[in-house]
Amino acid sequence: LGVIGLGHIGSATARDAAALGMDVIGYDPGMTIESALKLPRETQILGGMKAVFAQADYISLNIPFINKTPDEGGTKGIIGEELLAEM
Question: Which portions of the chain are predicted below pLDDT 50?
Answer without folding.
Answer: none
